[in-house]
Sequence to fold (411 residues):
Amino acid sequence: MVFDSSCLSNNDIAIGLLRLMDERGCKPDIYAYDTIIDSLCKDKMIEDAFKLFNEMVFAKGIQPDVITYTSLIYGLCNLCRWDEVSKLLKEMEDLRISPNFQTFSILVDAFCKEGSVDEAEAVIDIMVERGEVPNIVTYNSLIDGYCLRGEMTKARSIFDSLTSKGLVPDVVTYSSLLNGYCKSLKIEEAIRMFHEVTRKGLNPDVIFYNTMIQGLFSVGRCGDACQLFDEMQAQGQTPNEYTYGIILDGLCSNHQLEEALSLFHLVGDSKLNYNIVVYSILIDGAGKRGKLDIVRALFHELHVKGLQPDVRTYTAMIRGFCRVGLLREAKNLFLKMGERGCPPDNVSYSVLLHGYLKNQHFNDVEILLQQMDRRSYSLDASTLSLLKDRVTAGSLDRSLLKLIGMLVPKS
Ligand SMILES: *[C@@H]1O[C@H](CO)[C@@H](O)[C@H](O)[C@H]1NC(C)=O
Fold:
């Protein structure tokens, strides 16, 4: 048997070796199976992993161990296949295989990412009962879970309890809390976190700076955001494409289109400007200000550069057209984007509908609503109230109310 490794993945090679061992009468053991199953699970090849698992258990009569199960659970969690995770846990229990530290950590992390922090806490309790000691990584998952839910008081109290558990918060801990505070617009708390990290001599990385800069922009503190951008470079951190996007977006959202454009021109021919995200941000910023000449120039330029507009780019163009009442152009582009392999999404629909209503263009409203209903999109609050106003004013027929009712968000 000869392996041409150029066209085979490591997993294929490993499975090939397993077969070779078999042929040569050298029985593969649990370690061989565990290693390959783990590698398949990490590569999201869960079906192949289960095939090997079944072979091991049923054809070879080898008992799986905690490592086998932990690998499979990890693979399933990554794919959000929760029912199968529960099934495996039950199976482990039946076979009297106790989950180990790794198994518990994977479960805690998966629950937190799903927003199920109560389940994560329950797993930690079981973990402690079984004599495993949660470490900073376990608590980082939990803090992140609470931050994702915007439950900052809870996140903070876990953070505050770390010291009494003999644990030291690391950059990841601070990063989660900083992000949580920024997203909940608790900017003073975020700044305090930021200073604490610097004071403790933990080096804030680019992601850390990006989060803080974005947070400052989100509360309109553009000056501070730009100052931090300078500071980050002085500290030897090189801004990345996300930093650049955050700055452009922050400036545009805070009515500083001119500053955003001058930064864009300053960056010039660098790789940073060969990115559709950059163009979408600027087109959106210019469109919202009704600067259609800039919008068109940018759209032309991205074509020249060979960049593919995406849904966000098209939607930004449509918003720009609607803003200045160019409804025919908005509608044309809306129809064309689908033909160009980039069908409108719920935001595109919402933007065009909003444009129609604002500009008293009522002919196409009903058909748009029907299409939204067919796609199970719902109306955002401002479009909904605009629609109701137009019905009350008699510009739209009352018969539309039934359709509108179906498009009201369920929750
Ligand atoms: C569009 O859908 C996304 C995800 O389903 C949702 O978060 C967003 O609020 C929707 N936007 C609008 C304008 O309906």
Remarks:
- Residues 1-5 have pLDDT under 50 and may be disordered.
- The pocket of 2-acetamido-2-deoxy-beta-D-glucopyranose is lined by residues 346-347, 350, 380 (CB under 6 Å).
